[in-house]
Task: structure prediction
Amino acid sequence: MTAPEALPLPPMLAHNIEIARVWLCGDEDQGRSLRVTLRSSIFSDSERPEHGAVTWGMALADIARHVATAIANQHDDVDYGLALANVAKVFDAEIGNPTSDLRTTERVDDSSDPEAL
Result:
């Protein structure tokens, strides 16, 4: 199987900053896993470090809403609410009882360099 083309970039605005890249690696025979590169410090606040986790949680919720919208747009028999409920249900289950091992293999902490990711 050939690799799919890269996803298109969103419209460029004056202050875009890429915060994450996600790849599905491997195949069905070898097993698939996600590989993630994060600009992990992008939401850091040295005076209130808990805000980073809160803001990442908000970003993940926004991503879930985008995914639900895409699913609903692709399938006439699935509405947005059902898609979002299913994403949230599996998200909660996966957080509580992961089905795969997590190996953080790369992390970029330099939020000042948008090309560093």
